[in-house]
Design a protein that fits this description.
alpha/beta, 26% helix, globular
Length: 533
């Protein structure tokens, strides 16, 4: 007899949704989570986040031998882009949620095509929006078709959004609301947003969704969550066709959990690493890796941004999240307007964001100035703060990166973690299409800033860009076992009782934040597992 019907590896949003949906159907589920439960109160963590010199790594306990990694090519700041612990990276995410476009699934934006269509995922998108709690408006003229309105109404445009809107109108750029996984009204036993403004890395009010809410619901249905239990490998039976147990470490001892079904939901870095660590005689190149695609086609969304000042108040940082965007150039990145010239160069999809947190917050600036200088007090300090705060604007944007086989996750045999396992090595570079698209996005941003009358003080370049913390593509979905790792139902091609619920299955990730698609695929994956039981 197995210890549990279903073993889920990872207690982030995908693992939480899989476990809760299976438990709702009456199945016995156990989650193994590598990190801890975060017991500290959110208000205490917010205060930590405001202190100078303490990054997300410190706030969420990332770093050290447990989280060691290496990079080749372009440096990848892995530990700044994830959280290990119950709730996963939704503990520190910004909370922006969108459906990928029909053209993304068809492979028309960044390629290759998915083996499922937008219509296949539509019912799961709807269920995911309800499960997470999404505030949004259906007026976005560039979004894919919907079945019904969002669960909650959208947040209204901010004051700085209104400044940008005037400039956008002048240059022919359409703005619209943003899908937010935070409550614009009371929803799912959580209060409405009250505007703490520290949304990333922590929401003290609980208005922003994180996976601990779903974990709590799953535990009420009988799901067992074992925290601080990093899985070391998956063992298979003699035939190599089924996983028999997950071997993990807890309190210094190696333990095992047997199950009938296994679901990997540990993210786009740790999932391929675990599969590679699970190599055996039947799977010499790594579990479920007959295609050689495990770890390959890693891709990201990279940042394109512009910032500057305007000669009037902007109320910067009064809102800690984004309330307006433009997806006008998403499916047609080369299209222009009467003011903005067309581009006939090959480009990737991208979206434009109007940032409510351009420049420092008043509190943050005061803390940093006092920490760095002992000379300014009273009226002098107040004058410095007034000079440095209150008239800054910024735009951002996400640029889709075409998946390439050479961008990959491997095992670094020369570096080991706290359990003696090789750490993940991230091989990551930017292609010319991505670089051109960064320049295209910032050129459009320049037109908008000039129309607003703002002075540009900085712009992202291909050399200074960074990742958006979206790990995609390392166990890609395919109809053909020779070209991917999982089938359209998220079950691995080679191992009949192993599924993957993660953005790692994305054949391409477009240029929209991936969590809603992760959630939709997790629900699809859960249905596939339930069907097999």
């Amino acid at each position: 007899m197995s210890d549990t019907e279903v073993c889920v590896v990872g207690a982030g949003p995908a693992g939480a949704l899989v476990a809760n949906r299976l438990a709702s159907a009456g199945h016995d589920v156990t989650i193994l989570e590598a990190g801890p439960r975060f017991e500290e109160r959110d208000t205490e963590r917010m205060e930590q986040a405001l202190r100078p010199g303490l990054s997300d790594l410190g706030v969420w306990g990332m770093g050290g031998p447990r989280d060691a990694f290496s990079t080749t090519g372009r440096f990848y700041p892995l530990n700044s882009t994830r959280v290990k612990g119950v709730g996963g990276s939704t503990n520190h995410w910004q909370g922006m949620v969108y459906r990928l476009h029909e053209a993304d699934f068809a492979g028309e934006n960044n390629g290759p095509a998915w083996p499922i269509s937008y219509d296949d995922l539509r019912p799961y998108y709807l269920a995911a929006e309800r499960a997470i709690g999404v505030a949004g408006d259906s007026e976005n003229p560039y979004a894919p078709p919907r079945e019904e309105p969002h669960p909650m109404g959208a947040f209204p445009p901010s004051y700085s959004d209104s400044l940008f809107a005037e400039g956008c109108q002048q240059v022919g750029v359409t703005t619209h609301s943003v899908g937010n996984a935070r409550n614009s009204e009371a929803y799912d036993d959580r209060a409405a947003c009250v505007g703490y403004g520290t949304c990333k890395p922590v929401c003290p009010s609980g208005a922003r969704y994180d996976a601990t809410h779903t974990i709590a619901a799953a535990e009420e249905r009988g799901v067992e969550v074992i925290a601080n239990a990093p899985v070391q490998r998956l063992d298979t039976d003699a035939s190599g066709e089924q996983v028999t147990r997950a071997v993990y470490v807890r309190e210094g001892s190696e333990r095992e959990l047997t199950a009938d079904r296994f679901v990997l939901a540990a993210g786009g870095i740790e999932i391929p690493r675990l599969l590679l660590l699970s190599a055996d005689d039947s799977h010499p190149d790594g579990l479920a890796n007959g295609s050689g695609a495990v770890g390959r086609y890693f891709h990201e969304h990279v940042f394109a941004g512009t910032g500057g000042r305007i000669d009037e108040p902007t109320r910067q940082n009064h809102v800690g999240f984004i309330t307006s965007e433009s997806h006008q150039f998403y499916d047609e990145p080369g299209a222009g307007t009467e003011t903005i010239p067309d581009s006939d160069e090959p480009l990737a999809p991208f979206k434009l964001e109007f940032l409510n947190y351009g420049g420092p917050s008043g509190t943050g600036q005061a803390i940093v100035r006092r920490a760095l200088s002992s000379d300014s007090w009273g009226d002098d300090l107040l004058a410095e703060l007034r000079e440095g705060y209150g008239n800054q604007l910024a735009m951002g944007g996400l640029v889709g990166q075409p998946p390439r086989a050479e961008n990959r996750i491997r095992l670094d045999e020369g570096t080991t973690d706290d359990h003696g396992n090789p750490v993940p090595e991230i091989q990551w570079t930017l292609d010319e299409t991505t670089k051109r698209t960064i320049r295209r996005a910032t050129e459009i941003q320049r037109h908008i800033f000039e129309a607003v009358g703002a002075r540009i003080e900085w712009q992202t370049t291909p050399e200074t860009t960074g990742p958006a913390a979206h790990h995609m593509g390392t166990t890609r979905m395919s109809s053909d076992p020779e070209s991917g790792v999982v089938r359209p139902d998220c079950r691995t091609h080679e191992v009949s009782n192993l599924w993957v619920a993660s953005s790692s299955v994305f054949p391409n990730g477009g240029a929209l934040n991936p969590t809603l698609t992760i959630a939709a695929l997790a629900l699809l994956c859960a249905d596939s597992v339930a069907e097999s039981l």
